């Protein structure tokens, strides 16, 4: 039976509008809203940048250079201080890199996103990036677009699977509008937001939202690409090995970026100081970096273009790789708001440009200029850091409009991603979830089971037996209560073992011993148990250990205190009910 939108089903029937058509209409609207949100976000950030960074530089005479540059850290610190009221009003929703939580909500927790995310993800990153802290806007704009999709889905009471699709459509629209790259927006939604799990039938909705958002953005900003990229091309097939080596180096550098990011964040988490002051401290550190290397501040787009044009000198471009990694890790690890997408593009451009400089100096006649390698480096590093090669490839292709560079880009992006995955199975976006024990890469069935706790399914009316009960008493209880797994309790009411039908079956025909043998003598003492806060995935794993159909649920603080019994059939029923609920919600 086809799924239906409960709330609007009568209207659909009346006007003979198919559900697929209605999804397309919703995606069209989401794309428009995502495009408008992108304009609002960029305008807000531009306002903060002009007011705080440029205005502050003039006010403090930092733009005059010299000793005044020592005052530069005050600007990002001011932006970080402006985050404090927001973080106090909405704790846990403003600070830090929020994209991993977004992925978790979309793929595991039903995709219900609060509408205020739209405002918070505009203001927080705008204050952070616009004041000179090192972060990107792309993660937040994806969350903003996803929130638009989620609230649109909630408004029309769509099913869980369709809710996920509308969120992905919104995220695609946000990314497409930001980079003026509709295909990259689609790939971003599929590879990063949906983790590669999607149905072909849902492809149209994501494509339409991405395309419409791009139209809105182009209507406001024009059809210019995100970066002004010179036209490069492959000199000869002999140059391919150089790009393969770049792919390997990119993969290694992406892993370094990921590990540095989380190590620095852990350091700030362990720091004993007021949490509200940690972003201010991080901003001070970034500001100090900026005194000597101003390129690491903000999103770095201007300096990405300079590297693509080959206008950054070699020693500086090498330093920028590592200082940008640290600056971004410090900004987001300390609690600044923003994403890692733009910094990844910056690091990719600098690493590719550095490598290209060396290669071109060694083989000037047979290799392209450093700018070509910087261009390829952008897509390759983004692919390796996010484990999303198609996103990196299509983003660069749309940014350059140059088909001739697509072959080295493909080699470099795929190899970089393979190297990064070999060394670290999680991307920078999913590692946080793995560290928290969230199995984000599990399938749809396991995701459903992971969301249900044992306490929600267990039976509280536990049939038990005293340790002095006879075998005859156990048999009678099993027949009367239809319970074939009975915990045996000692004098204090604590479980000392469990008796199953398998344990009593050999004695069914031996009447002379049924009143002699005690429960304590045949009870299995090595009991497999569950805790109320375990999820049903854990329960299924425990059931399969010895092909048991029922398990006792005990207190975590006192593993001998029985609080319930969990039946294998009840677990399957709970799963089926949850699936039906998600499909018809």
Give your account of this protein's structure:
The chain has 585 residues and is mainly α. It has three domains: 10-221, Clc chloride channel; 237-446, Clc chloride channel (Orthogonal Bundle), CATH 1.10.3080; 450-584, CBS-domain, CATH 3.10.580.10. 61% of the residues lie in helices and 4% in strands. The chain has helices at 9-15, 19-59, 74-89, 99-107, 117-130, 138-155, 160-179, 182-193, 203-221, 240-270, 278-292, 301-308, 314-333, 341-362, 370-386, 389-400, 406-423, 431-435, 444-450, 471-481, 501-504, 519-522, 536-545, 568-584, and strands spanning 465-466, 485-489, 495-500, 550-554, 562-567. Helix 20 (471-481) links the parallel strand 1 and strand 2. Helix 3 (74-89) runs antiparallel to helix 11 (278-292). The two termini are 15 Å apart. 48% of the residues are buried.
Task: Spell out the key features of this protein.
Clc chloride channel; 585 residues; mainly alpha; CBS-domain; two-stranded antiparallel ribbon; 61% helix; 24 helices
* Global geometry: elongated
CATH superfamily of the largest domain: Clc chloride channel
Quaternary structure type: single chain
* CATH topology term of the largest domain: Clc chloride channel
Number of distinct helices: 24
Residue runs with pLDDT of under 50 for 5 or more positions:
1-6
Question: Strand order, biggest sheet?
Answer: 1-2-3
